[in-house]
Amino acid sequence: MRLLVTGGTGFIGSHLAEEGRRRGAEVVVLGLTDRPEEEANARLLARIGAEVLPGSITDADLCRRAAQGVTHIFHLAVAMREGGKSDEFFETINLDGTRHLLQAATAERVQRFVYCSTIGIYGHRAPGITSEESPLSPGNIYERTKVAAERLVQDFAENCGLAAAVLRPADVYGPRDQRLLKMFKGVSRGRFPLFGGGEGRRHMVYVDDVVSAFFKACEREEAVGEGLIVAGPRACTLRELLDQVTAVTGSRRYGIRLPLAPMLGLAAVVEDVSAALAIDPPIYRRRMDFFHSDSEFDISKARRVLGWNPQVDLEDGVRRTYEDYRRSGEL
Question: What does DSSP assign to residue 136?
Fold first, then answer.
């Protein structure tokens, strides 16, 4: 196996690249190194023998160079959490970049192309349990471009003979996750604000379980042409997640509770004003989705098609994540 991981300097991508090396694969990582955590991940991967190519998938020539001789591609590079950016920004990275990579993959006749989508395409508040057959309800430009990119992958698969699969991970967490690090830090100091009651469901999935699903998607012929939800053993409420983090950090309390509705309104105003001023907003709609979301997912199709089953429950995953933050000096 010669594996290319785009977005490989990010959280999930770095774990995929690391596992590829662990399995004896040649690994090429294409990713940005603009942030301290990306630089740290790039150094880690270089130390274990991965080839790191700094840059963006918006560079078609770089995509072609990165894909040379590659047998498998995990495509994770994405514009995701950026606030105050234009629709064109997301379209250039999430659509044009994906097209560049698909063209390179087709030219190199790669054996398997696995695209990382998101469960966000089903919306953030869905009654009952969501499955692959549930209606799509993308609520922002990030999610709309992910839907469009999935269709692009499907088009290349159908018209160019590319063996492709799409995985839709739920809320991924684990070591090196910078997003939940903010929660752990806030809770450990008793200063993490809970907006609303915390009753909304979220379906967490530990990063090692996501990694195993990606490699299963390489190995199983049944995965070709499929779009699969990848989530943890069970859903929890935001309050349950906070309670787990509070317990593992030894904090007496996570913080204060505040009403959600005013913050949703404030985030909308700040994001719109920041966009008009062409500055990055300190708070925006997608950031507040964390407190507003309420969804649970059916993973029976991934179990059946991939022969995959999530192994890490929430309590164990939160503990492992906390211990890694402590070891790395981030907590």
Answer: P
For residue 12, which of 48, 49, 37 has the smallest C-alpha distance? 37
Distance CA 138, CA 153 (A): 18
In degrees rounded to 5, what are phi and psi of residue 205?
-145, 130
Beta strands in 20-77 (DSSP E): 26-31, 51-54, 72-75
Q: Which residue in 182, 226, 185, 228 sits closest to 205, CA to CA? A: 228
Q: CB-based burial of residue 204 (10 Å sphere; 0-12 exposed, 13-18 middle, 19+ buried)?
A: buried
Under CATH, domain 2-177+204-232+296-311 is a member of which superfamily? NAD(P)-binding Rossmann-like Domain (3.40.50.720)
Asked if residue 115 lies in contact with residue 165, where contact means CB atoms within 8 angstroms, the answer is yes
Contact indicator for 174, 124 with CB cutoff of 8 Å:
no
* Residue pLDDT tens, the chain, 331 long: 999 999 999 999 999 999 999 999 999 999 999 999 999 999 999 999 999 999 999 999 999 999 999 999 999 999 976 666 789 999 999 999 999 999 999 999 999 999 999 999 999 999 999 999 999 999 889 999 999 999 999 999 999 999 999 999 999 999 999 999 999 999 999 999 999 999 999 999 999 999 999 999 999 999 999 999 999 999 999 999 999 999 999 999 999 998 988 888 888 888 888 877 778 787 877 778 889 899 999 999 999 999 999 999 999 999 999 999 999 999 9
In sequence order, which ranges of 161-196 are alpha helices (DSSP H)? 178-188
Joined together, the tokens standing for residue 230 give 């990848």
Say what the pTM is. Answer: 0.94
